[in-house]
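Record now logged underneath.
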Amino acid sequence: MGAKEELEQLNRIEQKLSKLIARYNQTQEALEKAHQEIRQLELMVKQKEEEIKNFQNQENITKIVNTIAADAASATELKLKINEYIREIDKCIAYLRD
C-alpha cells in the first residue's frame, strides 16, 4: 500500500470518526433533553398527587362535617374551622421539616 492510499484511508477514518463524534454529541443532547423532560414530568406528577391529596382531604372533611353538623350554617362554620386547623398543622409540619 502506497503513502497516497494510506493517506486516503486515514482521511476516510477521520471522516467516519467525525461523523461518530457528531452523532454522539447529538445523542448526548437528546439524552439531556429527555432527562429535563423527565424531571418536569416528575414535578407535574408530584403536583397532581398533591392536588389529589388535597381534594381527598376536602372530600373527607365534607363527609365529616355533614355527619356532625345539624344544619347547613353550622356545617359551613365547622368546615371552615377544620380547614383552618389543617392549614395550621401543615404550617407546623413545614416548620419541622426545615
The chain has a mean pLDDT of 88. Residues 11 and 17 are 10 Å apart (CA to CA). Helices lie at 3-68, 72-97.
